[in-house]
Amino acid sequence: MELKEIREILKLLKRYEIQDFSLQRGDNRVRIRRGGAVVERSAAAPASLVTMPEPAQAQAPQQPAVAEPTVPQETLSVGENQFLVTSPIVGTFYRAPSPESPPYVEVGTVVSQGTVLCIVEAMKIMNEIECEVNGKISALLVENAQPVEYGEPIFIVDLA
């Protein structure tokens, strides 16, 4: 699925106020839920294709299901001089640009705003996650090549 197609789908979802949408092409399945910013992808799904509802059907309000982060932020003790970096999307967490490359950052690495911390792969698109603050990495909260949810904590940065 191309980025252009995804953008068109998102425009239709907004236009018709659709809260939950699923699409399957071959072995790939995409599901988008508005409000929770949840996108999920699976390689093996039932052989069914969900079609767009008519505009009259789309007007009925639906309660979107929101995925909770795997590690709730409330369970982490983040001090006032620390910043919690969370995943902005659902996907697979990678510490390095390729298996042969060294990780972008390690615990103890000094980072600044804009420093690439990791990659989260979503729908075969590699999304670089950049640091939003200046500081030093004090904790890595996710293992390499593990799935992450929207809002899941992935790093703790001690503020400079």
Characterization of the model:
The chain is mainly beta and about 160 residues long. It folds into two domains: about 5-60, no CATH class; about 75-160, OB fold (Dihydrolipoamide Acetyltransferase, E2P) (Beta Barrel). About 10% of the residues lie in helices and about 35% in strands. The chain has a four-stranded antiparallel beta sheet with strand order 4-11-9-6, with no helix packed on it. The longest helix is centred in the first third of the chain and has 13 residues, at about 5-15. The model is unreliable at about 35-75 (pLDDT under 50).
List the helices and strands and how they pair.
Elements: H1 3-15, E1 20-25, E2 28-33, E3 38-42, H2 55-58, E4 82-86, E5 91-94, E6 110-111, E7 116-122, E8 125-130, E9 135-140, E10 147-148, E11 153-159
Antiparallel strand pairs: 1-2, 2-3, 4-11, 5-7, 5-10, 6-9, 7-8, 9-11
